[in-house]
Amino acid sequence: DAKTTQPPSMDCAEGRAANLPCNHSTISGNEYVYWYRQIHSQGPQYIIHGLKNNETNEMASLIITEDRKSSTLILPHATLRDTAVYYCIGMDSNYQLIWGAGTKLIIKP
Amino acid sequence: DAGVIQSPRHEVTEMGQEVTLRCKPISGHNSLFWYRQTMMRGLELLIYFNNNVPIDDSGMPEDRFSAKMPNASFSTLKIQPSEPRDSAVYFCASSLRLAGSYEQYFGPGTRLTVT
Fold first, then answer.
1. Are strands B31-38 and B42-50 parallel, antiparallel or unpaired?
2. Per-residue model confidence as pLDDT tens digits over B8-17
3. H or E element that contains B45
4. Does residue A55 sit at the B interface (CB-CB below 8 Å)?
5. Euclidean distance between CA atoms B111 and B7, whole angstroms
6. Would you say residue B22 has pLDDT above 80?
7. How confident is the model at residue B100 (pLDDT cuts 50, 70, 90)?
8. Alpha helix locations (H) across B1-115?
9. Is A74 on the interface with B (CB under 8 A)?
10. Which of A9, A29, A95, B33 has a beta carbon 3.0–4.6 Å from A104's, enabling a disulfide?
11. In what helix (H) or strand (E) does residue A88 lie, and over which residues does it extend?
């Protein structure tokens, strides 16, 4: 089962790129890494996931290192509405998401 | 699509009362998940269904908790009798589980307060 490690909190200036790191050194070769975020008082929101290659969608980019032991979620132009807890998540052997404590990202004006 | 729908959004009840939480998953999704979130324990998976069948209920705290999924468009989570320690936000999520694609989509949650 994949376990992930994230910093508990980060700040980022509005309009700048927010880079959120995640270590997942125990991830196996066929396990995806998922990123979700949870804005205060709302349900978690899916952002992106990846296996080996870098991924990009309308919300964010995901950069996965070649050894797959870590990844970085990039919000290219952070806004105040991006303030949330961001979860980097692995999966267990039954393909269930393993939730940690996440990173509390605060976007400052 | 309206997304995952949960009701009620807020529930306040007295200890010992029965509580029923409801969930309508996204149409076409074949998996449904019930989670509980508290400050102390974070997000915990209680139970999940695949094609309306309960697959893993190992996260259900005790016999006071039960969940059903009578059809593909409806599920309930029942607590009987409720206790103050059950106070939490309960989320329902649904997923279309395909190889390589297991992302879950969450509802807005039900905030339960047991006094």
1. antiparallel
2. 999 999 999 9
3. strand B42-50
4. no
5. 10
6. yes
7. low
8. none
9. no
10. A9
11. strand A84-91
